[in-house]
Amino acid sequence: MMQNPTNNRKALQTGLQAVALWSTVATAFKLSLEYTSALTLVTVASIVSWLFFASIITWRKEWVSITQLPRQAIGLSLVMGLLNPALYYLVLFMAYERLPAQEIMAINYTWAIVQPLLAAPLLKQRLRPTELLAALVSYAGVFVIATRGQPFSFQISDALGLGLALSTTIIWALFWIANTANTLDPIQRLFLNFTGATPTLIAACFIQDGFNELNWQGILGGAYIGFFEMGLSFVIWLKALRLSSSTVKLSTLVFLSPPVSLVFIWLILGETILMATAVGLLLILMGLSLQHLRSTADS
Q: Does pTM surpass 0.85?
């Protein structure tokens, strides 16, 4: 098939827009959590994101087609919403409450390393030596970050925070593995995910009196996260994938997000970027690069 240079340029520009949005979210998470709890923030964000995807469904006139989807697919998508966004973002925000944004942001990118490790036993896929090496290199980076530059001390700065951060990578990887055979339109699937998650989060928030602590800063932060991080960035990335002739090459743009995120964290949050974070992130990105090279060779 002949490649379209114009479409590829548009794909690159569109992909960079998504990366720019992703680069702001670590800062938005940490900033918002100064004014509200993890549960309240994820609930507000989920409500906003549900409204975002519902508006797309309305614009595309797909309400009738959604009701005609296979019941099993609808049920699975609703249940999967409890995994993501509900559990994933709740645990992620709890991690951000405990650790600096720079550390959580870097560790969170290891979900792509976790996915093949879990897919091997769950989907009976063969685990390649390259993927094991990528995991070893990336988790060496996580250990450098967790010990804040003193890996030989074997003292984790915050074991619970680290556990929460690593848990998010497992939750995210499980979510995508479970959706491997899901053939639903991505927008419709996400709408159903949020339809399953949002009422559950609202109920939990009422039980925990989470709405009593709402203020304009928390609402603004939740709205930003729900609209841009959970919603718009995904739609933009989907558009980039449709335009690109090589999704594997387009995915290299994701490597730009972590260093740009560090710049926002430094400028807006005022966090001093530790050398341990920089070295650990470099190791994580090296691991991801190894895995990406393996994917490129297979494609």
A: yes
